Amino acid sequence: MSELHFCSPDGLSLKLSLPSESTDLAPEYRSTVSPQTPRKPTYSQTPTPLPSTPVSPASSPRFGNPTPVGLCGFLLANTPATIMLLGWGGAGGNNGNQSAAIGAYFYLGCLLEIICGIGEWINGETFNATVFLVLGGYFGASAAVMVPFYNAVGGYGTDVDAAEAAYYASYATFLIFMAVVLPFFTIASR
């Protein structure tokens, strides 16, 4: 009598006893499967169908995408200011005065960009959050120096011409560093 012994990877075994001569009898089977034998899960190569129940709310995002709001805030604050600086069609009083853009700077540029940056941070988008928060800070700083309450030029002395020259030289330093940061953002966004 010959015996065959089969073991599966999940701990099941089957012992098959075959007679040495050919007979019409069925072979004798003995299995070692018992309730005490631990069964490991088997993994099939066929894909499992998707569950019929909806995905739990914990794994789905709770907020919308804030990026379009931030981009609109940037465009609505930056485009009119650029037109005023260029003096197109008499905007800015032909001398680049941006006083009319203070509200757009504070609310569309600063506030909206910061809210968008916080929304991106909540959604886990660190780079987008960094860009929008830096731009929000830029618009807030640019708006603050145009508000008479802050008296940005007055801190440089009483002689108006010398104070304006010193103020513009100092403010240009800020703009130069913004001009250095923005290309890095552009390169890093790819």
Automatic annotation (TrEMBL):
- Compartment list: Membrane
Alphabetized, the UniProt keywords read:
Membrane, Transmembrane, Transmembrane helix
Regions crossing the membrane: 69-88, 100-119, 131-153, 165-188
**What InterPro entries does the record point to?**
AceTr (IPR051633), Gpr1/Fun34/SatP-like (IPR000791)
Q: Which GO terms describe its molecular function?
A: acetate transmembrane transporter activity
Q: Which segments carry the region annotation Disordered?
A: 25-61
Name one matching Pfam family.
Answer: Gpr1_Fun34_YaaH
Q: Which domain of life is it from?
A: Eukaryota
Which family does the UniProt entry place this protein in? Belongs to the acetate uptake transporter (AceTr) (TC 2.A.96) family.
Q: What is this protein called?
A: GPR1/FUN34/YaaH-class plasma membrane protein
Species of origin reads Hortaea werneckii
